[in-house]
Structures are given as structure tokens and as C-alpha cells.
Write a structure and sequence with these properties.
single chain; alpha/beta; Rossmann fold; 3-stranded antiparallel β-sheet; 6 helices; 9 strands; about 30% helix; binds 6-phosphogluconic acid
């Protein structure tokens, strides 16, 4: 695991966008990317959209999602809605595999898993996975203490969550640790002073305490801004 520090969210976002471009251009065949939800990736999406449709081979890119809230696709909390507004619509992207948050979550997770395995194998090997990290050390929708954190057989599950970070009791659709670890490239984008304490614990503290610590692989890089990196040694 590597850590790259940047001045601010804008620089983190540009680094993430450049990484997407470089890795996609260097690939051959279908390039499968899982987008993260939350607010951090918005600016990266906007920068990618501003680069225009020819910055990378979008016709070979499949967009997947790391997780989704159990809301309709036009709901303000929908990760898909954010990606649609900031990236998919501006670039008129096809090849988008949406997690159907409006459906029964168990059925929607099973269907998404079937779709992902059919495309990327078992375990599904994604080319690039973007992840964020919450102030409690969660990533995707693997919240501390939630059942999905320990899931090692399934690839997509409906995860019952009860956390103030998730606005209380809810169910989330999420990729599981085996998928996040099978990815060829993982990029965490973390910014903001509110993440500084947990980032230091996740990256430098005892292992096995936070879901974000479970994401290991041959190329996991944390893109962090100075504010989030403040408590790192
Ligand atoms: C989600 C995300 C989640 C997010 C973190 C960080 O659905 O919310 O997948 O894992 O990456 O909560 O969120 P921010 O980027 O908003 O801080």
C-alpha cells in the first residue's frame, strides 16, 4: 500500500482523474471501473467530464459501482445519481452497470453479483476501483461491525447498517472484500481534516480494526490531501 499526498481536494481529484486516464489508455480490451459514492469523487468526475470524450477510450470502459444506497436512482442520496450528473450524462456514457437501489436489496444484490461475475469472473476482477473512506473507517458500504465486513464468499451483498455515518439504520448494497482485493488497481481518495484521525489509525494503527484496512492488493494507493494527512507520521 502506498500513500501519495496532495495539497487539497482539487489536487487529489486531478490525480485520480489522471490515474483513470493513464490506466485506461494503457489497457487493452474492456476496462472495468468501480466508482465510489459519497462526495469526494464528485470533483474527479467533473474533471474527467471536462477533459471531453476523447481523453480516454470510453467506448472500452464499463462503469460499475462499489456500493449504493437503497433509494431510487433519482434520489439525492443515490451514488448513481451523483455519477450520472457529474460524469455519465456530460460524457453521454453507455456501458453503465447500476446497482438497483430501488429494488428489494437482497434480490438486487444477487442480480448485480450475477452480472458482475458474468462480466469479470469469480472472483470478479475489476481493473480499477475507486474508494472513499468514512470518518469511522468504512469503505464502500462496509461499515464497522456490519455483517458484510466478514463476507468472503459472496461478491455483492445487501448489508444492514446502523451507523450515524449512514444516517441511522438502513440497508446498503456493497461489493465485498474479496472483490476489492481482487482488483488490479485500487485508488482511495481521502480529503478533509475530519478524516485525519481515522486515516492515521487506518494506515498506521493496529490492523484489523477498520474495514478500510481490509482492502489489500498488488496496487492499492491512497491519494490524500494535506488536511487528511495531518496526523500521519
Ligand atoms: C458512500 C460511499 C462511502 C464514501 C465514504 C466517504 O456510499 O457513501 O461509498 O464509502 O466513500 O463514506 O464519503 P465522502 O466522500 O462523502 O466523505
Amino acid at each position: 500500500m502506498k500513500i501519495e499526498r496532495f495539497a487539497d481536494l482539487e489536487a487529489v481529484s486531478r490525480a485520480g482523474a489522471d490515474e483513470f486516464v493513464q490506466l485506461a489508455r494503457a489497457s487493452t480490451g474492456t476496462f472495468r471501473v468501480a466508482l465510489s459514492g459519497g462526495s469526494t469523487p464528485k470533483r474527479m468526475h467533473e474533471l474527467l467530464a471536462a477533459m471531453g470524450p476523447h481523453a480516454l477510450p470510453w467506448d472500452r470502459v464499463e462503469l460499475w459501482f462499489g456500493d449504493e444506497r437503497t433509494v431510487p436512482p433519482d434520489h439525492p442520496d443515490s451514488n448513481y445519481a451523483m455519477a450520472k450528473r457529474t460524469l455519465i450524462d456530460p460524457l453521454r456514457l453507455g456501458n453503465v452497470h447500476r446497482m438497483e437501489g430501488e429494488r428489494d436489496p437482497v434480490a438486487a444484490a444477487a442480480d448485480y453479483e450475477r452480472e458482475l461475475v458474468a462480466a469479470a469472473g469469480a472472483p470478479p476482477v475489476l481493473d480499477l476501483v475507486f474508494l472513499g473512506m468514512g470518518p469511522d473507517g468504512h469503505t464502500a458500504s462496509l461499515f464497522p461491525g456490519s455483517p458484510a465486513v466478514g463476507e468472503r464468499q459472496r461478491y455483492v451483498v445487501a448489508n444492514p447498517v446502523d451507523s450515524p455515518v449512514a444516517k441511522g439504520k438502513t440497508t446498503r448494497l456493497t461489493l465485498t472484500v474479496p472483490v476489492l482485493c481482487a482488483a488490479r488497481h485500487v485508488r482511495f481518495l481521502v480529503a478533509g481534516a475530519d478524516k485525519a484521525g481515522v486515516l492515521a489509525s487506518v494506515l498506521e494503527g493496529p490492523r484489523g480494526r477498520y474495514p478500510s484496512q481490509l482492502v489489500e492488493g498488488s496496487d492499492v494507493v491512497w491519494f490524500v490531501d494535506q488536511a487528511a494527512a495531518k496526523e500521519l507520521r
